[in-house]
Write a structure and sequence with these properties.
The complex is a heterodimer of chains A (302) and B (247). Chain A is an alpha/beta fold. Chain A has two domains: 2-220, Rossmann fold; 224-297, Alpha-Beta Plaits. Chain A is built from ten helices and 15 strands. Chain A has helices spanning 41-48, 70-74, 92-102, 107-120, 136-149, 166-179, 192-198, 216-222, 259-271, 283-292, and strands at residues 2-10, 16-25, 29-35, 56-61, 64-65, 77-80, 154-158, 184-189, 201-206, 209-214, 227-231, 243-247, 253-257, 276-280, 296-297. The radius of gyration of chain A is 22 Å and the shape is globular. Chain B is mainly α and 247 residues long. Chain B has one domain. Chain B is built from eleven helices and no strands. Classes of the chains: A alpha/beta (302), B mainly alpha (247). At the A-B interface, α2, β6 and α3 of A face α1 and α4 of B.
């Protein structure tokens, strides 16, 4: 289990990144932590990965205290930090091999693990090419290969797909999905689609506090509404109570609503020949509901 | 799994020296040129009279440059590649990482060392005690510069800062001090500026050991005490201020 109890982090400049955060989740599969920029995702990741000291509170990973049991914990964890880059003057093989030496492997075992990891990531043909000549997606894969090659079974992966094209991103998702079978992956991202597709558990962090935690289905239940209706017509006015309304900057309307109201409203919209789309509530809808706050609540006939 | 400490040391040496030299052989020439170029100029200007002093000066410069390079390399790997973050969350300790990085600077400077040591054997005539003194001073200067480099790297968060630190360190440690020549060549009022740098004291001791600079015993003892005191003080500061796991 990963447990945080009243975990807080206040930086020297007074900024409070984590505010008495409580969290409890199983250390299996992929846990995605989502939040706006500056929500505290990287701070939480760095504290759990034993890089940063908390100001107060406790955090445990599989019973090990992240402050007191550092030596034991560091045998079991590995991190791919936010904005990490493959060292340019190394080749992929040298990158993975040197990291394994840092983890304390001997030459023979490290070399065996390098070959397996690079093959696993599909980059073995580039193993002797300097990192600086590889594409952005390839460089990211090399970094994933470094932590994959290690014996750590708890991986912290901080915004691994930022700046990648959709194909490279999808490639990395495949890798992470494969990895989750025998690793616990603590993934931070601000791509909601990424969290939705990959995560077994999702946490929504805002201003240093967890606003929502659970599976996608559990989070859907948290916002009460199961469907999202998007009305494309600008400045459309609802004439009945249907749920929670979020109005986009372009004037379009999104309505989070229950199954019965979704049925009723969609029938009416069809009858009135108003264009709309209807989908199950997405993580994005939930995120906006919890973080951004709806503009209009429980709209009534105007 | 049993952690192999030698592997952990070797990792830094590979990343920061061996792989860099292997993948970019031009770096071998670069490390050689800096100390040798000043040596050649001094020897030419002095018509060979300062040859042995210049060789020991080049050795001191090579040692001190290790620390200057270390602060840049550490900051580069930490801030631009986040390698240090990955290592902090691994079984490698701060001591193993830093020791490996320090050794990597010596390995990186090996081309210069080899040439300078051959030259020293050929042109510096001293006793075994003199050779021992040179060795101890070089080791002390290396330890001093490495500690300084490590301290500055933990304080810096940007490559612009690193460049500024490197330039300032180079001027204070290798340009102002009279390491390629004796301090007598500097006019008296300006000698006091040279004494602001610890390398001046190191150069005086070495120049005395090879018979170029006669010094009173009291001055010699003072030089030793100053160098040892500065090195110890710096190590104490490093132990207190270094930030492996950030707070």
């Amino acid at each position: 289990m990963l447990v945080c109890k009243g975990l807080s982090k206040k930086y020297e400049d007074g900024h409070v990144a984590l505010d008495k955060l409580n969290l409890s989740l199983p250390t299996k599969g992929i846990f995605a932590l989502i939040g706006k920029n500056g929500a505290g995702k990287t701070t939480l990741t760095r504290i759990l990965a034993t890089e940063l000291m908390p100001t107060s509170g406790k955090a445990y990973i599989d019973g090990m205290d992240v402050v007191k049991d550092v030596a034991k914990l560091r045998d079991k964890i590995a991190i791919l930090p936010q904005e990490s880059r493959a060292v340019q003057w190394l080749t992929p093989k040298q990158t993975v091999y040197s990291y394994l030496l840092y983890r304390g492997f001997g030459h023979k075992e490290a070399m065996e693990r390098v070959d397996i990891a690079l093959k696993e990531l599909g980059v073995e043909n580039y193993k002797d090419t300097l990192n600086r000549f590889l594409s952005g997606g390839m460089k990211r894969k090399i970094l994933v290969a470094t932590i994959l090659a290690s014996d750590a079974n708890i991986l912290f992966v901080d915004e691994p797909t930022t700046g990648l094209d959709p194909i490279s991103r999808a490639d990395l998702w495949k890798v992470l999905n494969k990895l989750k079978k025998d690793h616990f992956i603590f993934l931070t991202t601000h791509y909601l689609e990424e969290a939705e597709k990959l995560a077994d558990m999702i946490g929504i962090l805002d201003e240093g506090k967890i606003l929502g935690l659970g599976t996608l289905e559990e989070l859907r239940n948290k916002v009460k509404y199961q469907y999202s209706i998007r009305v494309l017509q600008k400045n459309f006015v609802l004439k009945s109570k249907v749920g929670t309304v979020i109005r986009g900057v372009d004037g379009s309307m999104q309505i989070l609503t229950s199954a019965e109201d979704a049925d009723r409203l969609s029938s009416k919209l069809i009858k009135d020949r108003i264009k709309f789309s209807i989908n199950p509530t997405s993580l994005e809808d939930i995120f906006y509901y919890l973080v951004k706050k709806p503009i209009e609540e429980d709209t009534y006939e105007s | 799994m049993k952690v192999n400490k030698i592997s952990q040391l070797y990792a830094s040496i590979l990343v920061n020296a061996i792989y860099a030299m292997k993948n970019y052989p031009i770096t071998l020439i670069n490390t050689l040129l800096a100390p040798l170029s000043i040596l050649i100029i001094i020897v030419l200007v002095s018509h060979g009279a300062l040859l042995s002093v210049s060789i020991e000066g080049a050795l001191i410069m090579t040692m001190v440059s290790g620390g200057v390079s270390l602060q840049g390399d550490l900051s580069h790997l930490k801030n631009d590649f986040k390698l240090q973050d990955m290592v902090v969350s691994s079984p490698t300790s701060a001591f193993m990482y830093m020791t490996g990085m320090a050794i990597s600077e010596i390995v990186y400077s090996l081309p210069a060392f080899i040439v300078l040591i051959v030259l020293a054997f050929m042109f510096i005539h001293t006793t075994i005690v003199g050779a021992l003194i040179i060795f101890v001073i070089l080791a002390l200067m290396f330890a001093f510069s490495i500690a300084l480099g490590f301290l500055l790297s933990t304080l810096s968060s940007d490559i612009m800062q690193n460049w500024a630190f490197s330039s300032i360190l180079s001027i204070i440690l290798t340009t102002i001090p009279p390491i390629y020549y004796t301090i007598n060549y500097i006019p008296l009022p300006y000698r006091y500026i040279a004494y602001l740098s610890p390398t001046t004291y190191a150069a005086e001791i070495v120049q005395n050991a090879i018979g170029y600079l006669p010094l009173k015993t009291s001055n010699l003892i003072a030089d030793w005490l100053i160098i040892i005191a500065i090195s110890i003080a710096l190590f104490v500061i490093v132990m207190k201020k270094n930030r492996w796991r950030e707070s």
